[in-house]
Amino acid sequence: MLCKDKIISIFCLIDDILQGINHPEDVRRHVSDSEIILTAIVSSTSFYGNHCSAIKFMKEYGFIPKMLDKSRFNMRLHKVGRLLYELFEIISSYFKDFCCEMQYIIDSFPVAVCKNMRITNSKILKGKKYRGYTASMRNYFYGVKVQLLTTKNGIPIAFHFTPGKTADIKALGKMIDKLPAEASIYGYSAYTDYGLEDFSLMKKCVLLKIQRKSNAKRTDTIEQKNEKLKMRKRVETTISDIKKMFPRTIHAVTLEGFLIKLTLFVFGLQLNKAIN
């Protein structure tokens, strides 16, 4: 549960950014986009993504006395869906540009839209490309993967969604473009691509520090293995923190709504960790 001071701090940050980017706002509205986004963040961080509970909380505790009902709130939230990612990117740039962060970790985790026995009845997703396999858990899932990039302290600074069947290595190239020169990315063995490693170092000046398999052509020293393993555990902790905010099932009637909720979980953790 977010404390009062943190809720106020998050609102001030979001509102200042929206004013800074000249976000258009209808003056006739009683509830601003900043307040809508704040309520959605509170929902993801404190109420397992339950909008009704967050709306009730914001009203009863006087944060937003004129908060909208659930239906109108959801309509407004969908209208600012793209804005959520833009805000996330702006805050991420603070860590990359102003904090001079140079060490990053990449990993992915699956999010199923339904149980395997209900795949044929799924209305949100259709197609075999969403049928993925999780090697660590030795099971199949039907949904999307969240490709997550964090700082060495576990603060999310980049993410995007891929169909469940998509190999992790295909997401790595997009993440490299988001990083400053001379940065390092740590990742597990599924991100192994020697050609990409050479390209990123020569053209992007980004060093890929990927864990090596026992039969890898490029090997690590014991010190390098321990360093990569230590960094891997940090991103696993961050993923665990995100999953702790999930409800038993993420309810959504459209793919857009499903992805907005996932975005809010990642964005909520970023704000929760970044604001002290």
Automatic annotation (TrEMBL):
Pfam family, one: DDE_Tnp_1_3
InterPro entries from the UniProt entry: Tnp_DDE_dom
Ranges of residues in domain Transposase DDE: 104-245
Protein name per the record: IS982 family transposase
